[in-house]
Amino acid sequence: MTVNHIVIGGGTGFIGTALVNAFKQRGFCPIIISRMPGPFRMSWHDLERDGLPKNTTAVVNVAGQNILDPTQRWTPGFKQNIWNSRVETTKLLARAVTACPPKVFVTISGVAYYPPDEKEYNEESICNKYDFLSELCHEWEDAAKLPKDLNVRQAIIRSGVVLGRTGGMIKQIFIPFYVGLGGPIGSGKQPMPWIHIDDIANIFVNVVENDNVSGIFNGVAPQVVTNKEFTDAFASALWRPAKIPVPEFALALAFNRERAKIMTEGQKVIPKRVLESGFKYKYPTIDLACNDIAKW
Ligand SMILES: NC(=O)c1ccc[n+]([C@@H]2O[C@H](COP(=O)([O-])OP(=O)(O)OC[C@H]3O[C@@H](n4cnc5c(N)ncnc54)[C@H](OP(=O)(O)O)[C@@H]3O)[C@@H](O)[C@H]2O)c1
Q1: Domain of life, per the record (predicted)?
Q2: Which of 90, 94, 108, 163 sits at a 20 to 30 Å CA gap from 288?
């Protein structure tokens, strides 16, 4: 029997771990690319030197230094790390895929591709770069481009805020909300494109396994909510009040305005192509997602 190897860049992270588990359940044998050695792992240097392991049928990249790491100042050096950990890792994988083509190549990007305004965006919306994070999304997606004549199916998943207990935003806000100190960010009126961790993992699985899908997919839930609506849903799932707003200027002071935008601004993003592909969400509404995440 041939083993289906899937190579996952960033497979040690919050989203990566969910992908590793989801793909194992589907019978794949995941190999993680990480900066730290370990079983079933390879380094970025190994990839550059030796290329993809034999029998690799799928390659996925979800690597990327945490943009909202509160211990890191928003310096040119940190911004370079943010950039390289996404763009350069994706370029390396695209080169390895070109040299030894698997069946499918799937990479992540972000909804910062779309400008934060009143419009609704779907995967067919073409947008220009408008700030650092949108430039990053464009370059990240360009880095994944493969030669036109290469017979590899390719997809890019533009993810919204991923909600799950073990990482991302929820890990940072869980304790304040649990002790009743949660609240909306600024006015709370900004849209917050979101998705449950199980659903983003299943979208990757669906894209890898379904030979008929390729291109851009918005990794967001079908229900568009504002930051205030999310705050209310999460607080009520925890049976806590959430009346203490986080002022925008405090976030700008702590994080720098350029990266605080991830929290203070948002886009209305519709997963049109995900729905058209027949994908069924386990958590289509914010109440279902928050009730799951709030469970002990
Ligand atoms: N979480 C979200 O809400 C969300 C939303 C949209 C997009 N995304 C994107 O999805 C990706 C994964 O997010 P996550 O929440 O799973 O992040 P995470 O938990 O912080 O994991 C990040 C992963 O990237 C790797 N990494 C970190 N810094 C790196 C560097 N300098 N060079 C190479 N690899 C590096 C880490 O691998 P090692 O430490 O093992 O090397 C780790 O596995 C990121 O690119 C992020 O921008 C996340």
Answers
A1: Eukaryota
A2: 108
